[in-house]
Amino acid sequence: MTQPASPTAPAAREAQFVGELVHALHEVIIGQEELIHGLLVGLLTGGHVLLEGVPGLAKSLAVSSLAGAVHGSFNRIQFTPDLLPSDLVGTEIYNAREGTFSVRKGPLFANFVLADEVNRAPAKVQSALLEAMQEHQVSIGGTSFRLPAPFLVLATQNPLEQEGTYPLPEAQLDRFALKLVVRYPSKEEELRVLDRMAKTENAPKVRAVATLEQIVAARAAIDRVALDPRLREYIVALVHATREPAQVGLTELSGRIRYGASPRATIWLALCARANAFLDGRDFVTPADIKRMALDVLRHRVVPTYEADAEGLTSDKLVARVLETVPVP
Fold it and tell me: Do the domain assignments include residue 200?
């Protein structure tokens, strides 16, 4: 059912800036191909991204570089246990001389917001962030304010430390389109990191090679990428298999999945598969597009049971078994 992509296809024309964007990012970031790909998918679909990895793997650098490469505004928020909702959204300031209130907007008012160590903030702060992620607006003093467009939250969390952290509730995790696991670089990549970064001079800055207008146009092009009805059924079958694994022959996973993926996973898997096809310059989705994006879309939405944890069955392994079992059209 696949066919070769035409170099003059609309998706190929709209995606011409992507190659230059990737090149500009790699002038600053060494390796981390999957991280950059996932960030681009999030950018092109408007989906928020959760980044998990130990410190020092260029997560923050990748996010700030992406913002700079597309002429977007960028703010970084360090999440701590004493953070308040007003530290994110802003607050009303009273002018005693004039007897009036004015609004001082918080750091959420940016195109790209890096929520660093997001799981260190308490529930009220998470609730304020959740409204911004879902509604693209915040409330200050009873008045709602729209956030800049495009608006993207890219949050990091450290998988090692648990003391002083507040685990993200499933409802908030579901608001993230993708969860990317950032891994250590190879020896060769780390040697290149050493050569480039082990200097007292300033690190290289990213080049601005695209515009927010191009991103908006690319999103419209992604909506036109064809998704065959059989592939729509395949996406739904994958998501349903995380809820009822026995129905696809995965009886050994019955009692190993506490929560399966929500319908939001179905929506995002289709969108991200279209974005992956777009990045490849194609106007149609293939099963390979869906398989490539499935783990990033599903890993934070499939929650293992305690029994699965005891057996070493992580969410990644559960999703991998589903991908192996559900027949490809």
Answer: no
Assigned domain for 95 exists:
yes
320 and 235: one domain?
yes
**Segment 145-198, tens digit of pLDDT:** 899 988 999 998 877 656 556 677 777 788 999 999 988 888 898 898 888 878
Q: What is the mean pLDDT of the chain?
A: 87
Specify the CATH number for the domain of residue 276: 1.10.8.80
Could you tell me the residue range of the domain that residue 265 belongs to?
Answer: 225-329
Question: Within a 10 A sphere around the Cβ of 310, how many other Cβ atoms?
Answer: 9
HEC string of 151-207 equals CEEEEEECCCCCCCCCCCCHHHHCCEEEEEECCCCCHHHHHHHHHHHCCCCCCCCCC
CA dist list (Å): 203 to 22, 69, 198: 18, 15, 9
| Beta carbons of 290 and 238 less than 8 angstroms apart | yes
Global pTM exceeds 0.85: yes
